[in-house]
């Protein structure tokens, strides 16, 4: 019996380098989600990312396509980790967290 009750959902993690070199150039099949506040997002963001703040994410799941890989970023990686768990619970299969978030973006 593999993980019937207490398993944590497996969430893929990538570095900001992988985001820049692999994910952003081939946007096909990916949905880029920034879960920081609107103020943080308007101050500095990555082109192609859609801003849905973490505190409102559960109310906007209908905007996020389930058939795409959802790549999630925040400021440090904490909120994006929470967002990834929320997305997994909501039935999203392909969810990726950007380690270090915007703090590591260069």
From TrEMBL:
Pfam family, one: Rhodanese
Transferase as UniProt keyword: yes
Domain Rhodanese: 26-105
Keywords, ordered alphabetically: Transferase
Originating species: Sporolactobacillus laevolacticus DSM 442
Domain of life, per lineage: Bacteria
Gene Ontology terms, MF aspect: transferase activity
The protein, known as: Sulfurtransferase
CDD domains for this protein: RHOD
